[in-house]
Specification:
Hyaluronidase domain-like; globular; 5 helices; mainly alpha; 125 residues
Length: 125
Amino acid sequence: MNSEFDEHLARGVALFNGHAFYEAHEAWEIGWLAEAGDARLLLQGLIQVAAAFVKLGREEPVGAVKLLAEAEPKLRAFVGQGHGVDLETLLAEVAGWKARLADSPEHPFAAKDLPTLGFTPPAGG
């Protein structure tokens, strides 16, 4: 794993939790580009979730649902080993948003409804 992986992961989580989804996507992408190991797939899944909420903010629910669906298997592969990211809760959020957008794609959403990531930085990170 790249030595800066934890830094990029934590920065992206902080941005995501501030609902700066585009910026979170960018932070994780820097880490993704530098990563050669399996953790690259985790970052790709997180990037796709962040990009889905960028699409949602642009009122592109079909694109958001597609990205959420693409992220799910990538994130599921890391459940229990998400480098401090609470993937179980995130996957539940992803499923909920996919259902919500399928049922009512034109329904507006409030900032209070947007997801945040549970995150416990790894020891020493």
